[in-house]
Specification:
The complex is a heterodimer of chains A (about 625) and B (about 475).
Chain A: H1 7-26, H2 29-54, E1 59-70, E2 73-82, H3 83-106, H4 113-132, H5 136-154, H6 161-190, H7 207-224, H8 233-236, H9 242-251, H10 255-263, H11 265-269, H12 272-295, H13 299-319, H14 323-351, H15 362-365, H16 367-381, H17 387-402, H18 405-430, H19 445-460, H20 473-478, H21 490-511, H22 519-533, H23 538-586, H24 591-616
Antiparallel strand pairs in A: 1-2
Helix pairs in contact in A: 1-2, 1-4, 2-3, 2-4, 3-4, 3-9, 3-14, 3-19, 4-5, 5-6, 6-7, 7-10, 7-12, 9-14, 10-13, 10-14, 12-13, 12-18, 13-14, 13-17, 13-18, 14-16, 14-17, 14-19, 16-18, 16-19, 17-18, 17-21, 18-21
Chain B: H1 4-21, H2 27-51, E1 60-68, E2 73-79, H3 81-99, H4 108-127, H5 131-152, H6 157-185, H7 193-199, H8 205-222, H9 231-238, H10 241-266, H11 268-294, H12 299-320, H13 323-354, H14 365-368, H15 370-383, H16 390-405, H17 407-431, H18 447-465, H19 468-484
Antiparallel strand pairs in B: 1-2
Classes of the chains: A mainly alpha (about 625), B mainly alpha (about 475).
């Protein structure tokens, strides 16, 4: 069965062409074509999954033919299926299919319904191909593909100037990272290395150069996974449809950066400096975004910052050697974050606002959405025994074992903040009194059923990696070389439980009981609060040091063209014309003038010749 | 089939002669004749491609006839992997541009006569293997182009035509001097380009450098290389749509082709000596073009400047002096012809409706003109090198090539990669996104307009998915070039 693996991205790709070319004729059928294609991919994925697990095969590679040859190396389109691939395939197909079903309801009134499903199919195809390919250059190709889909879908409602700008911003910001990735690939190519992921462990060469290559590859991952300082596009990306935020900007595409690091892990392991950088960047992103999420009021932006923060945690885990922890959190996060976004979408669909302060009491009006959202929030907050709890514990353990107290403290602080801001959303938006008079209805079944399914995963998926349950099945699955028995780390369990409960209590005191700091303390706090509320002014800094100089440079070049280059050209032309206008006057057309010139000429010639003759004799 | 290349070169001219015999009131017959002749030219080029031996690096279909034997000028034509792709490109764009002439209503007969002469000139330039013959075809292109811009152009057509003419002419004269110089410098004296290929590399280093610079100056104007590029935006903007397509699609390639045909194989020492400068110029072109394009307000001017930017990749590939770079350079020439040709067709489509090219007049076209949006999006994505479309392959190979030789230049050029993205996304955003700016509802693209773009889109997708369809033709010739330089 595994030999048909190449069909997995083909189905959505065909659906894309069908939808983009016959969109008008298909009408609402286009949604079911897209969903059908991704269901086929899902079925095939699970067929292969169980086929490989039951046969105890951990690795399958094949080549679909050569693509191009560079520097004497033939690069071919190859496929690598191992357990990491299988995990990603399952996440992408399951979450993708559920979100597409949800979209049928969410986008039902949109005039560009078919276009939406065309783009989403293209995204699914690129994303699945990205996960399947076996070398860096092929990954880069599909990497750009998902970036394009992300841009098109962020700007899906391009009539809104903010959405159009966000789409462009997303693509350009990630492109900065992607260019780094491309140069990283070139460094490997130029040193004659194979770009295959399976060969990356054997890379030899100058330590400095290879570290640079590793860092540049990570730069690509930073762009995609919205890590500091390239994270600025992700909050803006929330201008897109919420289902897209769930699929692309929470569950799958943004996780591609983490996937890339995990995929080339053997390469990073050999270059400790690169690995440390990953950890540090991850830590900065995690705590920075989590703190911003505490002050944001837009429900989608809170979730967006939360995504940056959680991706930061995954990077942090990978950076200290927690391969299992990083990938485990990637998987659980995909489900509960998709759930949270879809829940937020359902809320926005009903109340037509994104400001949490204008919501309130939603739990009573929208039972299914409310309960599933709370489940997702608790999973994200890391409350046991939901899935986020187990994966977060893995990260804590990995950090503890690595012996970096600062990084461990950052992770602890981040999860404290995470629990705090999620509790804030729940208390402000879902509990308490309703601040709106209008009638609020629960979303239709086509939207709530995916929520319920995702909530199921958010609750139970963590048990795959829970030490006492089926003996850490996930750990052994994702890293087949590992044979030790996983033990429960009770210390961590207690620590993280206390942490999340304290944070939730604190949020309860502040947002429900109205507890305030003493005014003196508050004043002390205001400055810091303002800094966070303005997102640490990172957007403004980018504007100052990149965007403005770029515009100035462009204007300068335009001016240079018009004034200097053309100026010289015009000057030459003018001088020629002026000179010609003088010389023209000599051409009078009168024979006597010409005779006069002739006699003058002869006279001068005679003078010269006689002068020469005199000198000779 | 004998004389296949002579047929290809002079067939368009024959069409021009035939058109000159048709009374001027029969406009539709004139158009039909021009199209038919271009279809047949493309057909013969298609035959040439199938008969072409891809496994050989040698010049094929060689024809050699003495022309002015007293001074050793021969009529020599031949095709190899370097010229084949460009000949195909010329024939294809020639046909499309002949079809896209609905906007030409003034003096149709003269237009097509000049157009057919232009086709002969361009095809001849790519196929000639005698320096004098090459020069004659090179100049043959200039005259009809001057009139095509100067008569059928926009408001500032005369300024643009003169500017184009003098810029190019100044370059050509230097080339003529270089050709004469090379004739006297090599022994035995010859204009035969194949013979010079084996003779010129033995010239002493100073001669090599001077001759290289003289040829380069002429090609640099045509490519165009910064700072000789300012004729391009004017000429492109003022020229009518089909002429812009030819100008961007084919004419710019003549300069780059000259680099590959003359500068690279003849003067290996000079190439080595100047490679870094060439690379710097390439990077400057890339970044300068993208930046200058970014702040233009005229849609056509933006595309014109983006050509400057793309030709930077071609220069970078040549400066790399390895097979990756040269392959990328040649492929980028082909791709740029296809993509920018398509872009100019699309600008023309919009101009026919809006009668303006100001960016501020457009917006929201993706909802009112979805087919147009589809084509423009694909072409814009291909322009900035989205993987999976043809632009990426050429750009990637060029950048990879230059990385192998001058890593820091590749790093510098990568800034250009980001700027090009910003440029084309901004075009998409301003033209296709947002709310419609015009109160008038423009009709979407018709069948006649789409049929012109379909082959270009198919080639863009095809080359992007499987670049080997073009690379297989050029690989052997490039390998030979690398061995020589």
């Amino acid at each position: 069965m595994v030999k048909y693996v190449y069909l997995i991205p083909i189905f959505p790709f065909l659906a894309f062409w069908l939808n983009i070319l016959l969109g008008k004729q298909l009408g609402r059928l286009s949604a079911w074509i897209a969903i059908g294609a991704s269901l086929l991919s899902t079925i095939l994925t699970f067929g292969i999954f169980f086929g490989m697990v039951t046969a105890n095969v951990h690795n399958y590679t094949c080549s679909l033919g050569s693509w191009i040859s560079i520097n004497g190396q033939t690069l071919s389109l190859g496929i690598l299926v191992d357990n990491l691939t299988l995990m990603m395939l399952s996440v992408v197909t399951v979450v993708g299919t559920l979100i597409q079903i949800y979209s049928v309801g969410y986008m039902s009134t949109d005039i560009r319904f078919t276009r939406y499903f065309a783009y989403i199919s293209l995204f699914m195809a690129s994303m699945l191909a990205l996960v399947l390919v076996d070398d860096l250059l092929m990954l880069y190709i599909f990497w750009e593909g998902v970036g394009l889909c992300s841009c098109l879908l962020i700007a899906f409602w391009h009539e809104k100037p903010a959405a159009a700008a966000a789409g462009v911003k997303a693509f350009i910001t990630t492109r900065i990272g992607d260019t780094g990735l491309l140069i990283g690939i070139l460094i490997l190519l130029a040193s004659g290395h194979s770009l295959r992921f399976t060969d990356l462990g054997a890379v030899q060469g100058s330590e400095v150069l290879m570290t640079v290559a590793a860092l540049l590859i990570f730069l690509g991952a930073m762009g995609k996974s919205a890590q500091f300082p390239l994270h600025v596009w992700l909050p803006d990306a929330m201008e897109g449809p919420t289902a897209i935020s769930a699929l692309i900007h929470a569950a799958t595409m943004v996780a591609a950066g983490v996937y890339l690091v995990a995929r080339s892990y053997v390469f990073f392991i050999d270059h400790p400096l690169a690995l440390h950088t990953i950890a540090v960047i991850g830590a900065i992103s995690a705590v920075m975004a989590a703190s911003i999420a505490c002050t944001a009021n837009d429900i989608k932006r809170i979730l967006a910052y939360s995504t940056i923060s959680q991706l930061g945690l995954m990077m942090l885990a990978l950076g200290v050697g927690g391969y299992v922890a990083g990938t485990f959190h990637l998987m659980t996060h995909a489900f509960f974050k998709a759930l949270l976004f879809l829940g937020a979408g359902s809320v926005i669909h009903a109340v037509h606002t994104q400001d949490i302060h204008q919501m309130g009491g939603l739990l009573h009006r929208m039972k299914v959405t409310g309960i599933t959202f709370i489940i997702g929030a608790l999973a994200l907050a890391g409350v046991g025994p939901l899935s986020g709890f187990w994966s977060k514990d893995e990260i804590f353990i990995a950090l503890w074992q690595s012996g970096h107290p600062v990084l461990f403290a950052v992770a602890v602080l981040t999860s404290f903040l995470t629990a705090f801001y999620m509790a804030r959303v729940i208390f402000v938006a879902f509990l308490g009194i309703s601040r709106r008079q209008q009638q609020i209805h629960e979303s239709p079944l086509v939207m709530t059923i995916p929520l319920i399914i995702l909530a199921f995963f958010a609750v139970f998926l963590g048990f795959l990696g829970a030490p006492w349950c089926i003996n850490g099945a996930f750990q052994h699955f994702i890293s087949p070389a590992m044979h030790e028995v996983i033990h429960m780390n009770w210390g961590m369990v207690i620590l993280s439980s206390i942490l999340s409960l304290t944070a939730i209590t604190l949020a309860y005191l502040i947002f429900v009981k109205g507890f305030r700091l003493p005014s003196s303390g508050e004043q002390y706090f205001v400055c810091f609060y303002k800094l966070i509320e303005n997102k640490y002014y990172i957007d403004e800094i980018h504007e100052k040091i990149f965007i403005k100089p770029f515009h100035q440079l462009c204007s300068l070049f335009k001016k240079f063209d018009c004034m200097y280059i053309d100026g010289v050209i015009h000057a030459v032309a003018t001088v020629t014309a002026v000179m010609a206008s003088y010389i023209r006057r000599w051409q009078t057309g009168r024979i006597e003038n010409y005779l006069f010139y002739q006699i003058c000429g002869i006279f001068i010639l005679l003078m010269v010749i006689s002068g020469k003759l005199c000198r000779i004799f | 089939m004998p004389n296949l290349l002579t047929i290809i070169i002079f067939f368009p001219l024959l069409g021009g002669l035939l058109i000159s015999l048709i009374p001027r009131r029969n406009e539709s017959i004139i158009r039909l004749t021009a199209v038919l002749f271009n279809v047949m030219t493309l057909g013969v080029v298609g035959v040439l491609c199938t008969l072409f031996d891809r496994t050989s690096s040698a010049v094929q279909f060689l024809e050699s006839v003495p022309w002015i034997p007293d001074i050793g000028i021969n009529y020599i034509v031949g095709v190899d992997g370097i010229s084949l792709g460009l000949v195909f490109l010329t024939a294809l764009l020639g046909l499309l541009a002949a079809l896209a002439t609905t906007s030409i209503t003034k003096s149709v007969k003269e237009y097509f006569i000049l157009y057919q002469i232009l086709m002969t000139g361009m095809l001849g330039t790519f196929l000639a293997l005698d320096l004098v013959l090459f020069y004659i075809f090179w100049e043959t292109v200039l005259i009809p182009m001057f009139f095509l811009i100067g008569i059928w152009g926009g408001q500032r057509r005369e300024y643009a035509a003169w500017k184009f003419f003098f810029y190019t002419l100044a370059g050509s004269f230097v080339m003529l001097l270089a050709i004469i110089a090379i004739y006297f410098l090599v022994t035995p004296h010859t204009f035969n380009m194949l013979e010079i290929t084996s003779l010129a590399p033995h010239l002493n280093n100073n001669f090599q450098c001077v001759l290289f610079l003289m040829f380069f100056l002429s090609f640099a104007v045509k490519i165009p290389v910064f700072p000789f590029h300012t004729w391009l935006p004017d000429a492109h903007v003022e020229a009518p749509t089909p002429v812009s397509v030819i100008l961007a699609g084919v004419l710019l390639k003549m300069g780059a082709y000259g680099l590959l045909r003359i500068c690279v194989p003849y003067f290996p020492y000079a190439l080595d000596y100047f490679a870094f400068s060439l690379g710097v110029l390439g990077a400057v072109n890339l970044i300068y073009g993208a930046c200058a394009a970014f702040v233009q307000t005229d849609f056509k001017k933006m595309i014109a400047y983006s050509s400057v930017s793309h030709m930077g990749f071609v220069l970078l590939g040549v400066a790399a002096m390895n097979s990756t770079g040269l392959n990328g350079s040649l492929l980028e020439m082909f791709n740029h012809g296809i993509i920018t040709g398509g872009m100019f067709l699309l600008v023309g489509v919009l101009y026919d409706r809006a009668h303006t090219r100001e960016m501020t007049a457009f917006g929201g076209l993706s909802s009112t003109m979805p087919r147009y949006a589809f084509f423009l999006t694909i072409m814009a994505l291909a322009s900035f090198g989205l993987p999976g479309l043809s632009g990426f392959v050429g750009e990637f190979l060029s950048i990879a090539g230059i990385y192998f030789t001058f890593p820091w230049l590749a790093a510098l050029s990568s800034i250009g990669l980001i700027m090009v993205v910003a440029l084309f996304l901004t075009i998409i955003r301003k033209v296709l996104w947002g709310r419609p700016q015009s109160a008038v509802h423009w009709p979407d693209m018709g069948f006649d307009e789409m049929i012109l773009l379909c082959p270009l889109v198919l080639i863009t997708l095809g080359v992007g998915f499987y670049p080997e369809i073009i690379l297989q033709f050029q690989r052997q010739a490039i390998n030979l070039l690398v061995r020589m330089s």
